[in-house]
Design goal:
Layout: E1 2-6, H1 9-19, E2 23-27, E3 33-34, E4 42-43, E5 49-50, E6 53-54, H2 56-69, E7 74-77, H3 83-98, E8 107-109, H4 117-124, H5 132-159, H6 170-186, E9 191-200, E10 206-214, E11 217-218, H7 227-238, E12 241-254, H8 262-273, H9 277-289, E13 291-292, E14 297-298, H10 313-326, H11 362-365, H12 371-386, E15 392-405, E16 408-421, E17 452-464, H13 473-483, H14 491-500, E18 504-507, E19 510-513, H15 515-527, H16 534-548, H17 554-573, H18 577-587, H19 589-592, E20 613-618, E21 621-626, E22 635-637, E23 656-660, E24 667-673, E25 676-681, E26 688-691, H20 703-710, E27 714-718, E28 725-731, E29 734-739, E30 742-745, H21 749-754, H22 757-770, E31 780-786, E32 793-799, E33 802-807, E34 810-813, H23 825-839
Parallel strand pairs: 1-2, 1-7, 7-8
Antiparallel strand pairs: 3-6, 4-5, 9-10, 9-17, 10-11, 10-16, 12-15, 12-17, 13-14, 15-16, 18-19, 20-21, 21-22, 23-24, 24-25, 25-26, 27-28, 28-29, 29-30, 31-32, 32-33, 33-34
Helix pairs in contact: 3-5, 5-16, 5-17, 6-15, 8-12, 8-13, 9-12, 15-18
C-alpha cells in the first residue's frame, strides 16, 4: 500500500475512489508549516535562514500521515501542480524526514491538471522528483513577503498609528487604487455638444448620421464647446440638403479569445456574474476537486490557478468533436487554434482553465450543481468551446454624407454592422460574450451612393466629459496582470487583504480608497518610493520566475533586495514624525485641505482663525487638527470636508440642526468628531450621542434617522422562555441582538430597527447552539510559542483597550509605548507572571470582607 498526500479532503475522497484499496489518500489541508509571525523567522544575517513552525491542526494531520506510513510501501506527494503545491509537498517531506518516518521508503511526486480517473492514473504512471527550482522560487517569495511585511509594518505603526500593514504586492495594488482616485480628483470636466441628423432614403427608410466635418474642418469629440456654436450648426443643417457621397461595405472577421486563465476568469465572473475574485476561486476550487454526478465523482474543470492559455492536444480534439456535434461542421475550423499569452511575465507551464470533459455540457450537469457552480461552469465551458470555433464574419458599412446649405458644407457619417455568419458567437447565443468590442451594431437600410436623402430632424445634445472610472476588482486584476504585478494565486488574496485592512471599500462593485489607504500610500510613495514602483515590483516578479526556471539563485536575489531595502528602513527610522506629517500634508493636500469656494486659505482653522490645520497622529490613526492646540481644540476626521455648508459636510464647530426630540424637547444635531460623524441630543456631558453606522452618510441623515439612532438600544420583546428582554443595537462589531449575555449578529443596520421577536429568538437560539457567544477574540499579532509550563501558546494581541499578551485565560496589558511586534518571550513571561500573581492565575479573587 502507498500513502498519497493531497491538499483537500474533497480531493482525497475523489482520488481514493479512482485508486482503490492499494492506496490510502490523506489530506494535508493546505500548508502544514509556515513562518511564525514573530521576529527572527527569516534571518538575513544568517544567509536568510528560515524557521518554520507547524500549527496545532497540522500536527494532527502530519501525525496521521506518519501513522499511515508505518505499514506503507511508499509515499506519493500529489499536491497541486503549481508553486504552492510544490512547496506543500516539500514541507510535508521535510517534516517526515525530521520525524524519521520515511526510513528507506521511496518518495514520488505526481501532478495532474484535472481530477479525472484518466488524469490521476496517468500521473501515477509518470512520477518525478520534487522540482527544486520551483521550491526555491517559493522560498524566495515567502522570504521577501515576510521581510517586507515584518520590517515595513512596524515602521508604519510608529510613524502612522492606525495603519495595519504593508506588503510587497498589496501596497502596489493599493497604490493603483489611490493613483486612480487622485486622477479622478484632478479631472476637470468639459462640456461639449454632439450633432446628429435623422435622415431617410427615398424609400422612406430612416437612419441616424453624426456630424464629422464642418466648414472644412474635421471635428474631434470636444470641438463643439458651446451651445451657441451647436445652435449655429443645427440651424445650418436644418436648412441643408443631404446626399450620400459614398457607401463602403467592408467585411471583417472577429476571432474568439483564448480559454480562461485565472485572471480572465476572475474578470469575466466579476463583470458578468457579479462574483468577487475570492468567491470565483472558491467556486472554481469545488468544480476542480470533484462533484457527484449521480454516482460518479469527477472534477469538472482543470486546475484554476494558471496564466497559460493553451489546451492539451487531446482536449482540443475533444472540443472539436463536440463543436461538430453541437453546432455543425460549418462552425469547425479546418485546423485547431493555438494561442499564446499576452500578459507580461506569463508562465505557460499549465493548461488554460477548461472543462475536463467537453461532452459534459452546462445543461447536462446543471442538475448536479448549485446555482453559482452552474453559472461559473457555464462560462468556462462556453469560453473553451468558443476558442476552437470559426471566427464571426461581420460586414461593417460606412456611409459618408454631404450636407450643403448655400456655400456652407458639412459632412456626416452613418455606421452600421451586420453579422453574416455568427461563428464562435453561436456558443454565446443566450448571452453577451464578454469580449464584445464597442461596435455599432445597428443595421443600416439600403443606401445608394449619390442619392439624395431626406432630413427628418436635427438634434444637438449636450454632454460632459467623465473622469476615468474607479477600478473594479476585474479591471484592477487586469491592470496588475498587464504590469506584471502578482501572480494568478495572489490576485484574490491581495484584494481581500486590502478590504480587510480597511484600506479600500467596495461600493457598487468599485474599489474606493479609504483615507487610511491614501495615507499609507502617500507615506510609502514619499519614503519608500522604490518599493511601490510598478516597474520595480514587476522586475522582482521576473527574477522570481527566473528562479523557478533555474536561471537565478534564490539567495542572490534576496541579498540584492535586502541590502537596499534594509538601508532604506534604517533611514526612515531616524525620521521625526513632524517630517513625515509635513510630507503627507503636501502629498494629500486635495484630500486633507480641499479648496474652499470663496478662495480663502483651506488650511486656516475655522475655529480660532489664526491657526493652521495639519495632519495629526493619534492612537487610532490620523486626523486633522489645529496648530494652536491645546488653546484651540478643533479636530476633524481625515477625509471629511469642513466647508460649513451643512449638506455636504459637517464639523465639530458647525453642527447641523435636525430638529427636536418629541419627548424631551432637546435639539438634535449632526456633528463630526475625531472618530467620525455622529448625532447628538442636547448639550453638555450628559448629552446622548450615537455614531453614524457604516454605510450611512451625512447627506442622508434626517430627523427620523437621528431619532432612531438615539433610541438604541431598542427593546425587541421578552424571550418566551426566560421572560428576559431581547434588545437590538449597534456595537463595535456591527448590528446585534442581545439576550441574557448572548449576542447574535444581524445582517444589516436596518435589521436593528425592524427585527421582530420571532426572528430574534431564532438568532439567539442559533448562536447558543454554536457555543458560548461573546466578543470575538482578536487575531494574534505575534506568536511567541508555547509557555514553558504548558497550557498553550503565548500570543500578542490587539484588544479593545490596546495590545496585550495572552496565555490561556491570562491577559497582560503591554506597558505604554511598547511595540507589540517587539515583545520577546522573556518579557511576555514576566508580564504573565505579574498578572497571574495579581489575579491568582487568571481566576477572579474573592470579594474582600468589610471590617466590622
Amino acid at each position: 500500500m502507498d500513502v498519497v498526500v493531497v491538499e483537500s479532503p474533497a480531493k482525497a475522497k475523489t482520488i481514493n475512489k479512482y485508486l482503490g484499496r492499494d492506496y490510502k489518500v490523506l489530506a494535508s489541508f493546505g500548508h502544514v508549516r509556515d513562518l511564525p509571525a514573530k521576529d527572527g523567522s527569516v534571518r538575513p544575517d544568517e544567509d536568510f535562514a528560515m524557521s518554520w513552525a507547524v500549527d496545532g491542526k497540522a500536527s494532527k494531520r502530519l501525525a496521521d500521515i506518519v501513522k499511515a506510513l508505518k505499514d506503507a510501501d511508499g509515499l506519493i506527494l500529489a499536491t497541486d501542480p503549481d508553486r504552492e503545491g510544490e512547496a506543500i509537498s516539500w514541507h510535508v517531506l521535510e517534516v517526515l524526514r525530521q520525524k524519521r518516518a520515511l526510513k528507506d521508503k521511496p518518495v514520488r511526486r505526481v501532478v495532474f491538471n484535472a481530477i479525472t480517473k484518466n488524469s490521476v492514473l496517468d500521473a501515477m504512471a509518470h512520477p518525478r522528483d520534487i522540482d527544486a527550482p520551483l521550491v526555491d522560487a517559493y522560498l524566495a517569495r515567502r522570504a521577501l513577503d515576510y521581510l517586507v511585511g515584518f520590517t515595513l509594518s512596524p515602521v508604519l505603526w510608529r510613524k502612522l498609528p492606525g495603519a495595519r500593514s504593508a506588503g510587497r504586492v498589496q501596497s502596489v495594488a493599493l497604490r493603483l487604487v489611490c493613483d486612480r482616485e487622485a486622477e479622478i480628483e484632478r479631472f476637470v470636466r468639459e462640456d461639449y455638444w454632439q450633432i446628429a441628423a435623422m435622415l431617410a432614403t427615398p424609400r422612406s427608410q430612416e437612419f441616424e448620421a453624426r456630424l464629422t466635418v464642418y466648414d472644412g474642418k474635421k471635428l474631434q469629440k470636444l470641438d463643439i464647446k458651446s451651445s451657441e456654436q451647436a445652435s449655429e450648426i443645427k440651424t445650418m443643417l436644418d436648412g441643408a440638403t443631404f446626399k450620400a457621397t459614398s457607401v463602403e461595405a467592408k467585411p471583417t472577421k472577429r476571432n474568439p479569445g483564448p480559454p480562461f486563465t485565472t485572471s480572465t476568469l476572475q474578470q469575466a465572473a466579476s463583470s458578468r456574474l457579479g462574483f468577487s475574485a475570492n468567491r470565483t476561486m472558491q467556486i472554481a476550487q469545488r468544480l476542480y476537486e470533484g462533484v457527484d454526478l449521480g454516482g460518479e465523482t469527477a472534477g469538472l474543470i482543470t486546475y484554476m490557478r494558471t496564466d497559460g492559455v493553451q489546451m492539451a492536444p487531446e482536449a482540443i480534439s475533444a472540443a472539436r468533436s463536440v463543436i461538430g456535434k453541437e453546432f455543425g461542421e460549418k462552425y469547425l475550423p479546418e485546423k485547431p487554434r493555438y494561442y499564446s499569452a499576452k500578459a507580461k511575465n506569463a508562465q505557460e507551464a499549465h493548461e488554460a482553465i477548461r472543462p475536463t470533459d467537453f461532452s459534459r455540457t452546462p445543461a447536462s450537469v446543471r442538475q448536479y450543481l448549485d446555482a453559482d457552480q452552474a453559472r461559473l461552469y457555464d462560462i468556462v465551458w462556453k469560453r473553451a468551446i468558443a476558442s476552437q470555433m470559426q471566427p464571426a464574419d461581420i460586414e461593417r458599412t460606412t456611409v459618408e454624407i454631404e450636407a450643403r446649405n448655400g456655400a456652407r458644407v458639412a459632412g456626416l457619417r452613418a455606421v452600421g454592422s451586420v453579422t453574416r455568419f455568427d461563428g464562435f458567437l453561436a456558443a454565446y447565443a443566450d448571452q453577451r460574450e464578454e469580449d464584445t468590442e464597442d461596435e455599432e451594431n445597428r443595421r443600416l437600410p439600403e443606401i445608394r451612393a449619390d442619392e439624395a436623402l431626406n432630413r427628418r430632424s436635427v438634434t444637438a445634445t449636450a454632454h460632459t466629459t467623465e473622469p476615468p472610472p474607479r477600478y473594479s476588482e476585474a479591471s484592477l486584476i487586469r491592470k496588475m496582470e498587464e504590469l506584471g504585478i502578482g501572480r494568478p494565486s495572489t490576485y484574490a488574496s491581495t484584494l481581500k487583504t486590502l478590504e480587510d485592512r480597511g484600506y479600500v471599500t467596495i461600493e457598487k462593485r468599485r474599489l474606493m480608497p479609504e483615507a487610511k489607504g491614501r495615507l499609507v500610500t502617500a507615506f510609502l510613495e514619499n519614503f519608500f518610493e522604490r518599493y511601490v514602483e510598478y516597474d520595480f515590483t514587476a522586475s522582482l516578479e521576473e527574477q522570481l520566475d527566473e528562479i523557478s526556471d533555474g536561471k537565478l539563485e534564490w539567495k542572490d536575489v534576496l541579498r540584492d533586495f535586502w541590502k537596499q531595502f534594509s538601508a532604506s528602513v534604517d533611514d526612515i527610522k531616524e525620521l521625526r514624525v513632524s517630517d513625515v506629517l509635513d510630507a503627507l500634508n503636501e502629498a494629500l493636500a486635495p484630500l486633507v485641505f480641499p479648496a474652499k469656494e470663496d478662495g480663502s486659505d483651506p488650511r486656516a482653522c475655522p475655529k480660532c482663525g489664526n491657526g493652521q490645520l495639519s495632519l495629526k497622529l493619534g492612537r487610532y490613526g490620523a486626523f486633522v487638527g489645529c496648530s494652536n492646540y491645546p488653546e484651540c481644540g478643533y479636530t476633524r476626521q481625515l477625509g471629511v470636508e469642513a466647508n460649513g455648508n451643512g449638506a455636504d459636510a459637517v464639523n465639530g464647530d458647525e453642527p447641523r440642526a435636525l430638529g427636536t426630540d418629541p419627548y424631551t424637547g432637546e435639539e438634535i444635531t449632526l456633528r463630526s468628531g475625531r472618530f467620525g460623524p455622529y448625532v447628538q441630543r442636547g448639550d453638555g456631558k450628559e448629552a446622548k450621542r450615537a455614531s453614524l453606522p457604516k454605510g450611512w452618510s451625512v447627506e442622508t441623515i434626517d430627523h427620523e434617522k437621528a431619532l432612531a439612532l438615539l433610541s438604541l438600544p431598542r427593546d425587541v420583546g421578552k424571550h418566551p422562555e426566560t421572560g428576559k428582554m431581547i434588545s437590538a443595537g449597534i456595537g463595535r462589531y456591527g448590528p446585534f441582538v442581545l439576550h441574557d449575555g448572548t449576542y447574535a449578529n444581524l445582517d444589516s443596520v436596518e435589521d436593528v430597527f425592524s427585527i421582530g421577536l420571532n426572528r430574534a429568538v431564532s438568532l439567539i437560539a442559533e448562536k447558543k447552539a454554536k457555543g458560548p457567544g461573546g466578543r470575538a477574540t482578536p487575531a494574534a499579532l505575534k506568536d511567541l510559542g508555547d509557555h514553558p509550563d504548558g497550557g498553550g501558546k503565548i500570543t500578542v494581541r490587539d484588544g479593545r483597550y490596546g495590545p496585550y499578551v495572552n496565555w490561556g485565560k491570562v491577559n497582560a496589558t503591554l506597558p505604554k509605548g511598547k511595540e507589540p511586534m517587539s515583545v520577546t518571550v522573556e518579557e511576555a513571561l514576566e508580564l504573565i507572571a505579574a498578572k497571574a500573581g495579581k489575579t491568582g492565575g487568571g481566576k477572579k479573587k474573592p470579594a474582600r470582607k468589610k471590617k466590622s
